[in-house]
Amino acid sequence: MQKIMMLLVVTVLALQAMANGDTVIVRKDPRLDMLSAKQAQINKRSSMMTSSGLYKGFRVQVLSTQSRGEAFKMKTDLLTRFPEEKSYLIFQSPNFKVRIGNFIKRADAEKLKQQLAKLVGQNVYVVEDAIEYTPKEGEDIAG
C-alpha cells in the first residue's frame, strides 16, 4: 500500500512540474556539429582497422602449396602479369600461400578473382586479410 501511495505522490509531483510550463532553451555552438562529424568518421575508420594498424579487407588467394619453389614461381608470374597489384607470399606451416591485392570491398576482389580464374584455374579464392591501405582524404571506406 505504501508503494502505491509513494508512486501516486511521485506521479502528482511530476504532473505538477510539467504543468508549470517551464521551458529550457539550449543553444549550442555550431562547431560541435563539425566536431561530432569528424569524430564519427574517425570511429568508422578505426573500426575498419586491426590492432596492428592494418585495415580489414580482402585479398585473392591464388595458390596454397607445400612447394616453396612453386609458390615463388607463381608470385613472380603474378608480378609480371599484374604489376599494379601487390602480391604476397605467406608461410602457414606446412603451406606456402600466394595472395594478391589490397581491397577494402569484396566486390573489387571478386573482379580480380574472375581475371585470375581464367589464367590460373578454378582454385582461386577471395579471402579476408589484414591489408595495406591508405585512405584518401574524405573517402568513405566503411561502405
UniProtKB/TrEMBL annotation:
<feature type="signal peptide">
    <location>
        <begin position="1"/>
        <end position="19"/>
    </location>
</feature>
<feature type="domain" description="SPOR">
    <location>
        <begin position="52"/>
        <end position="129"/>
    </location>
</feature>
<dbReference type="InterPro" id="IPR036680">
    <property type="entry name" value="SPOR-like_sf"/>
</dbReference>
<dbReference type="Pfam" id="PF05036">
    <property type="entry name" value="SPOR"/>
</dbReference>
<dbReference type="InterPro" id="IPR007730">
    <property type="entry name" value="SPOR-like_dom"/>
</dbReference>
<keyword id="KW-0732">Signal</keyword>
<protein>
    <submittedName>
        <fullName>SPOR domain-containing protein</fullName>
    </submittedName>
</protein>
